[in-house]
Design goal:
By secondary structure, the protein is of the alpha+beta class. The longest helix has 13 residues, at 91-103. Helices cover 24% and strands 23% of the residues.
Amino acid sequence: MYAANFNGFVLIIDCPHGLHRGLQICRRFHRLKTRFRMDKINKHPLNVKGKYYVDADVCINHKCCVIEAPNNFKMDEETWQAYVFKQPLTSEEEKQCLDAMNICPVESILNDG
């Protein structure tokens, strides 16, 4: 992945899944807020209870979690953000959720476990 600073924005090029053909623009502060969790977490209202969840204030509709763990993540058609619709029940689903959490470009997937 290549990132460059452009007038206070970070331009992220080369999506790992090839979903974005152009440039994905994120505010630098948004990226820092995600990295250091400067404010409280806002769990997406459609997340089911459990250890995995998506922070609605951080998700940017990248969809990598839905690709990595389709049995556990869906996209909210109203807000176009991901949410956990089913907690992992098998070791394979657990691995997929962990992979989705690790590959999320803005670290919006969290784990309380």
